[in-house]
TrEMBL record:
One annotated GO molecular function: phosphorelay sensor kinase activity
Enzyme Commission number(s) from the entry: 2.7.13.3
Catalytic activity: ATP + protein L-histidine = ADP + protein N-phospho-L-histidine
Organism whose genome encodes this protein: Micavibrio aeruginosavorus
NCBIfam families assigned: sensory_box (TIGR00229)
Key words of the record: ATP-binding, Kinase, Membrane, Nucleotide-binding, Phosphoprotein, Transferase, Transmembrane, Transmembrane helix, Two-component regulatory system
Residues annotated as domain PAS: 157-208
InterPro entries according to UniProt: HAMP_dom, HATPase_C_sf, HATPase_dom, His_kinase_dom, HisK_dim/P_dom, HisK_dim/P_sf, PAS, PAS-like_dom_sf
Subcellular location: Membrane
Annotated GO CC locations: membrane
Pfam families assigned to the protein according to its UniProt record, in alphabetical order: HAMP (PF00672), HATPase_c (PF02518), HisKA (PF00512), PAS (PF00989)
Source taxonomy: Bacteria, Pseudomonadati, Bdellovibrionota, Bdellovibrionia, Bdellovibrionales
This protein's name: histidine kinase
One GO term (biological process): regulation of DNA-templated transcription
Ranges of residues in domain Histidine kinase: 283-474
């Protein structure tokens, strides 16, 4: 090629020759030769080889960089894979016990307290955590078993208490420290005329106002049980007397609540009063009845024997003797009422025509009270019932006399008395109703005391008529 120099060596390494083409001349070359040191030639050859090697290396530089880069990438990927594998192993050692604990915790949350976490982990902290978790679940399982057992016992006691309270005839109420009713049995509901569910949550002072002073007394006293009597109005507005026992629930000096028992002793008190009055009536009848007949006979004899001999004032003499005889008769009737009340005969039951006896009794009273319009309504016709006819007539007579006296005491111009006889077909009971147009009961009168002995609002009443009627019916 033009411009290139070709260096040639000969057989002997002490001479160097060079050949170069001359561009200015056609087919002309310049050949030059010179003697040189063989060392120089050797160095020149070495330099030439180094240059060739460098040229070759420069030519392969890009492929070498790619190779080195690939080797670096492979090594980096290997290190990354090794780190990832090591991380996975380490994460597995961390996640596995945590996952087991999460699974066990979910089972515990679902209510399975038998869940346990396996221990023996190489990580000491996880092993300690697993043991602590297992101890916790074991304690929870034991406590739940104890709670279930305690709840079962409480439920059994509750059912037993409810069964006992349901069979108790006394009213039982439980209250808290604020006097709010927390428990009420069926008898208390019947006693106060309020449904059980409505009683719960009410203040006991609103249900029985008169019990508040007794409750305050029970709180201040040191005794655990206190007893007293309170009065209340029933649904029919009759006055009832309740025997109340209060058992305080105390923890130390603090009152946590109380249990109140109520017994309706109205009938018991009435029976005690009747018994006492019957004894009094028996004694009075015995003491008064003996001299009555001699007094009446003496007065009648005085009138017959000495009436003709009295010349100064025979009218006064006759009036005095008649007064004695009349009042002795009144006292005799009163003594008879005392005797009837004190010693009620046993009924003799026979089949009787009830409407017939009612009409006969009414006829006798019509004759005795001509100024009163008597009326009877018989809804049963000829009706035979098992009864004591004499006692039925006595009870009916007392009712009618009570009505006629009320009409006469009130000064009613046209008295009316109506007797209604009906029969309840549902239970077969016969009802005899006596009504009048008198003034009725005075305001403020307690209906529950209406049949008590010696309770009367009539001018000439003894208070035994309705008491005898009640005794006969009982």
């Amino acid at each position: 090629r033009d411009g290139d120099v070709v260096v040639m060596t000969g057989k002997y390494e002490d001479r160097v020759r060079a050949l170069v083409k001359l561009n200015s001349f056609v087919d002309s070359y310049l050949f030059v030769g010179r003697m040189v040191d063989p060392v120089v030639l050797s160095q020149l050859e070495t330099t030439k080889k180094a240059g060739n090697a460098y040229t070759l290396l420069a030519a392969k530089n890009s492929s070498l960089m790619v190779t080195i880069t690939l080797i670096f990438i492979v090594v980096a990927v290997m290190f990354l894979l090794a780190a990832t594998w090591f991380g996975i192993i380490l994460a597995r050692q961390l996640v596995t016990p945590i996952g087991s604990m999460i699974t066990a915790a979910d089972r515990v949350r679902a209510g399975d307290l038998t869940a346990r976490v396996e221990g023996g982990d190489q990580i000491e902290e996880f092993d300690y955590l697993a043991k602590s978790f297992n101890r916790m679940t074991s304690q929870l399982e034991e406590q739940r078993a104890e709670l279930i057992n305690a709840n079962r016992q409480l439920d059994q006691r509750r059912r037993f208490t409810e069964a006992v309270l349901a069979g108790v005839t006394s009213g039982v109420i439980g209250i808290d420290e604020r006097n709010i009713i927390t428990l009420a049995n069926a008898s208390s509901s019947d006693l106060f005329g309020v449904a059980q569910e409505k009683l719960t949550g009410q203040d006991v002072g609103e249900v029985v106002p008169d019990i508040v002073p007794l409750l305050e007394q029970a709180r201040t006293r040191g005794s655990k049980i206190i007893q007293g009597e309170v009065a209340m109005l029933s649904r029919d507005m009759s006055r009832r007397t309740l025997l109340v026992r209060i058992a305080m629930d105390r923890i130390g000096e603090e009152v946590k609540g109380a249990v109140l028992t109520f017994d309706d002793i109205t009938e018991l008190q009435a029976a005690q009063r009747n018994s006492a009055w019957a004894d009094v009536a028996r004694r009075i009848a015995h003491e008064i009845k003996n001299p009555l007949t001699p007094i009446q006979l003496s007065a009648e004899r005085l009138k017959r024997k000495y009436m003709k001999e009295i010349e100064s004032d025979p009218a006064t003499f006759a009036e005095c003797t008649d007064t004695i005889i009349r009042h002795v008769g009144d006292i005799g009737r009163m003594v008879s009422e005392f005797s009837n009340f004190a010693r009620m005969p046993e009924p003799v039951l026979k089949e009787e025509n009830l409407p017939l006896h009612v009409r006969q009794t009414l006829v006798l009273q019509k004759e005795a009270h001509p100024g009163i319009d008597f009326e009877i309504t018989d809804m049963c016709g000829d009706l035979n019932v098992m009864c004591d006819a004499q006692q039925i007539r006595q009870a009916l007579t007392n009712l009618i006399v009570n009505s006629t006296d009320s009409i006469q005491d009130s000064g009613t111009a046209s008295g009316k008395l109506h007797v209604l006889i009906t029969m309840d077909k549902a239970d077969g009971h016969v009802v005899i109703c006596v009504s009048d147009n008198g003034p009725g009961l005075p305001k403020g009168h307690d209906p529950s005391r209406l049949t008590d002995p010696y309770v009367t609002h009539k001018v000439r009443g003894t208070g035994l008529g309705l008491a005898i009627v009640k005794a006969l019916l009982n």
